[in-house]
Structure formats: structure tokens, C-alpha cells
Write a structure and sequence with these properties.
Number of helices: 10
Largest sheet: 6 strands, mixed
CATH topology of the largest domain: 2-enoyl-CoA Hydratase, Chain A, domain 1
CATH class of the largest domain: Alpha Beta
Helix content: 40-55%
Structural class: alpha/beta
Distance between the termini: 36 Å
CATH architecture of the largest domain: Alpha-Beta Complex
Shape: globular
Order of helices and strands: EEHEHEEHEEHHEHEHHHH
Length: 258
């Protein structure tokens, strides 16, 4: 069995499953590279219209696998972290909607991998932690950028400086996750959301995602200009034409992703 499994189904849902349940799906240095390649594949493969990241065996991801690492002995540490940073950027900037399906633990880089997705669905038993400080480390995998944008600066500092483990319900109350569902309902719920995303208007989704990702770095003038450009692109697409036709005909649109 591969440490990371990848598939694209007939609907257009790409699924990435981290498959090291004996290590709570902790990610090795080699696996980071594989994840980056898979994110790039989803970004460029026209058959993939939405993506779900999940973990095998009841956990989402316990972060980076630090076992066997000789602390302070790696002269290429900066280069290694920059490569991992590129993987985080690829996920955050992926031009298709993404869902993190979180069961069990999502801690450290695993927590921030979930936060880098567009939507997070957690099971009731899921747990989250910016656990880095308890390992003598600081935030990585985009946590320093994404976390304060989700929960505010002071709450982000609380999570980062203490590294406490919080429940799925606490994470939802903070604004870290979109939905908390019963453990035995999460599969069906995520499947429903992923199907809705994969059968939606891909160009419009991608443009909205990009604008929202950049919103806190733009002035209102820049945001309005981006919206004008996006709508101009949309009105040239087959999907927008289909949506307008379907509205006039009082039926559901059939989006084809172009």
C-alpha cells in the first residue's frame, strides 16, 4: 500500500488519502514531495474539479514525522523547509475547491494542511492543535499566515503559544472549521459537498476562491477591479451561458467546467 493514495472519480472528485495509520498519518520528507506533485496534478488535470484530503485509519494527520531526525545536524534545513512551504502554497493556491475531511487528530503541519483547504468538515471526535511549541518549534505549513486570518491575532497567538489540543466543537466556535458532524455521518456529508463542488461552474469557483484568498491584501479599488475582470471572464464561459439559459427555462444548470 502506498503512503499516499490518489484517485479521481467519474464525478471529478480528486481524493488524496494519507495512508500511514500506524503513525497517525505523519508525513515524511519524501511524502511532502509526493503531496506537492499530487496538488499540481489536481491543479492541471481537467478531469479533477474538486479535491478532498483525508487520512486513513481514523486520523487526519499528525504533522511531520520527526522520528529519526537529528536536530541541528541538517545543513539543508532552510532548503527543506522552503520546499515544504512550496507544497503549502500549492495547496492554498490550488485553483479548484478543496475540502479537508478531518477525523481524529489534525496537529502541527497536519492542522495547517487542513486550514489551507477551502472548507473543513470535522467529525465530532476530531481534535486540532498547533502543537509546534510543545516540540520546541514554531508555526509552519502556512499557519502563521492562515491562522490569524481565520480566528484573529490574539486567538491565533493563544493557539500557537500554548499548543493546546482543542475539540472539533471548540474549533468550530473559533471559526477554524465549517461543519462538525457525527463520526458515522462524515463520509456522506463530505461526499455531498464534494459532489456539489465538482459539478459546479469551475471557472467562477476558481475566480471567487482566488479573490477571497487575496482579499486581505487588497484595497477596495483593487478588489473591485479584480471582480470586474472575473465577471468578464465568466460571461465568456459556456457555464455562465448555461446558467442563464437554465434560469430562463426554470431548470437546474448542467455545468461542464468551461
Amino acid at each position: 500500500m502506498s503512503d499516499i493514495e490518489f484517485e479521481i472519480d467519474a464525478v471529478g472528485i480528486a481524493r488524496i488519502t494519507i495512508n500511514r495509520p500506524e503513525r497517525k498519518n505523519a508525513v515524511t520528507s519524501e511524502m511532502w514531495g509526493t503531496l506537492g506533485e499530487m496538488f499540481d496534478e489536481v491543479a492541471t488535470n481537467t478531469s479533477a474539479r474538486a479535491m478532498v484530503i483525508q487520512g486513513a485509519g481514523g486520523a487526519f494527520c499528525a504533522g511531520a514525522d520527526l522520528s529519526g531526525r537529528r536536530i541541528g545536524a541538517d545543513g539543508d534545513q532552510l532548503l527543506s523547509m522552503r520546499k515544504i512551504g512550496k507544497v503549502a502554497e500549492s495547496l492554498f493556491r490550488l485553483p479548484k475547491p478543496t475540502i479537508a475531511k478531518v477525523t481524529g487528530v489534525a496537529v502541527g503541519a497536519g492542522c495547517n494542511m487542513a486550514l489551507a483547504c477551502d472548507l473543513i468538515v470535522a467529525s465530532e471526535s476530531a481534535r486540532f492543535s498547533e502543537i509546534f511549541v510543545r516540540r520546541g518549534l514554531s508555526l509552519d505549513f502556512g499557519g502563521s499566515y492562515i491562522l490569524p486570518r481565520l480566528v484573529g491575532l490574539h486567538r491565533a497567538k493563544e493557539l500557537a503559544l500554548f499548543g493546546d489540543i482543542i475539540s472539533a466543537q471548540e474549533a468550530k466556535e473559533m471559526g477554524l472549521v465549517n461543519r462538525v458532524v457525527a463520526d458515522d455521518e462524515i463520509d456522506a456529508f463530505v461526499e455531498g459537498w464534494a459532489t456539489r463542488l465538482a459539478t459546479g461552474p469551475s471557472i467562477a469557483q476558481s475566480l471567487s476562491k482566488s479573490m477571497l484568498n487575496d482579499s486581505l491584501n487588497r484595497s477596495i479599488v483593487d478588489a473591485l477591479e479584480a471582480e470586474s475582470f472575473a465577471q468578464t471572464v465568466n460571461f465568456k464561459s459556456d457555464d455562465t451561458a448555461e446558467a442563464i439559459k437554465a434560469f430562463l427555462e426554470k431548470r437546474e444548470p448542467n455545468f461542464i467546467g468551461r
